[in-house]
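Lay summary. Proteins are chains of building blocks that fold into shapes, and those shapes determine what they do. In this project we predict the shape from the chain. Here is one chain we studied, written as its sequence of building blocks.
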Amino acid sequence: MKIAVKWAGFKSPAVCIVAFTSSISSPGPMSAQSEAGEAAPSGVEGWIQSCDAGYRDSSEAWAGSSEIIHLVPNRRQLHAANGNWKDIQWEGAGDEDRQSAQVLGIDSPAAKWGVGLDTSAWDNAGGRHMKGNILQSVTFATDHSDQRLSPHPNLLVMASGSIRSNVSAWVRDDKAGTWSHEIVKSGSAADGGRWMPRDMESDRDQLTGIRRMLPALGNPGIIPGVHDAALPAKIR
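And here is the predicted shape, written in a compact code that computers can read:
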């Protein structure tokens, strides 16, 4: 997996333009001809290779994967949720040795993508996660009892389904740079069901006024979440 980026000013990371190239085989260096990404749009100048998976970051954490699933700006940083579909460290490995999904991040154009979240740390709690199915920056104006929140808390949320029929969510503490984990739903895939989060939206209930997150979780359906400052993840 490779990422090519054209920055239009890092003060607002949302205005970067990103192109992806992907390879199932182990990634190698890009040639000078393809340095800006193999599919860089014609006529677009300033493309630079930003990430080439298969390296250790500044903390010696392994940054792997075969694909990037989401790119999300949050609090002047850019975050990427990756996946391992058809990656040799997933397809060719036993259950205990598989590479799990990660969230990478950078805070400047010149920075090297670092591993912010490696879901393998929670493998024993909820199984192994092939990809980061959902990555969103969520802002709450009210809490679980419809009390106004000031300032409005902003949370980076990643969700993934495991090969053992669990749906997990991680919420980032931006001050500490750490993540809180919670199993949203667990069960069995014996009947052929799929436990994979596919999308997440938010909605304000017209009767109660409470704003809820609404993740779509495959066979388990939709399980709403609300803001609760008393919990480590701030969502329940």
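What the prediction tells us: The longest strand covers residues 178-186.
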